């Protein structure tokens, strides 16, 4: 299972995990790019470790609304979330999501930090890190 750390355009660390269940307490406050779909169980797992921003692949959006479920649950937990269009990145492949993913929707917490639909995951991550807003609870 993939778990690696890369750097965004600002030099800030970004954790890549194929499954959201690979997140750990060490990822608190980090940007996490996952290959997981944004279903309710993935969102609940994401809230356990409270990454600063989490990208989910858009599996199920428009079918079982998995991505929308993630946005809603993470909004309630005040955790920033962005959903990636699965036409731009393979489901289950965080590395592909990092290199090719395009954001299809965001929740309020992510939007407040400059993350927007239509951005690449890399551009959205850079916007997050340069927003000037201090992360934290």
Q: Describe it for me?
A:
The chain has one domain. 30% of the residues lie in helices and 23% in strands. The longest helix has 11 residues. The radius of gyration is 13 Å and the shape is globular.
Task: Summarize the topology.
Elements (H helix, E strand, L loop, with lengths): L2 E5 L5 E5 L13 E7 L2 H10 L3 E5 L8 H11 L3 E5 L9 H7 L2 E4 L1 H4 L9 H9 L8
Number of spatially distinct domains: 1
Rg over C-alpha atoms, rounded to the nearest angstrom: 13 Å
Continuous helix count? 5
Task: Classify the secondary structure makeup into a structural class.
Answer: alpha/beta
What is the oligomer described by this structure? single chain
Quick overview of this protein structure:
This protein has 137 residues and is an alpha/beta fold.
Which features characterize this protein?
alpha/beta, single chain, 137 residues
């Amino acid at each position: 299972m993939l778990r690696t750390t890369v750097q965004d355009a600002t030099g800030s660390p970004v954790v890549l995990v194929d499954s959201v269940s690979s997140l750990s307490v060490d990822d608190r406050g980090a940007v996490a790019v996952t290959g997981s779909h944004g279903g309710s169980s993935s969102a609940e797992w994401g809230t356990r470790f409270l990454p600063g921003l989490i990208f989910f692949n858009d599996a199920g959006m428009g079918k079982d609304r998995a991505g929308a479920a993630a946005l809603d649950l993470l909004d309630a937990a005040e955790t920033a979330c962005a959903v990636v269009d699965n036409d731009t990145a393979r489901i289950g492949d965080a590395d592909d999501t990092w290199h090719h993913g395009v954001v299809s929707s965001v929740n309020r917490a992510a939007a407040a930090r400059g993350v927007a639909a239509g951005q690449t995951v890399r551009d959205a991550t850079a916007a997050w890190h340069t927003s000037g807003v201090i992360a934290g609870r």
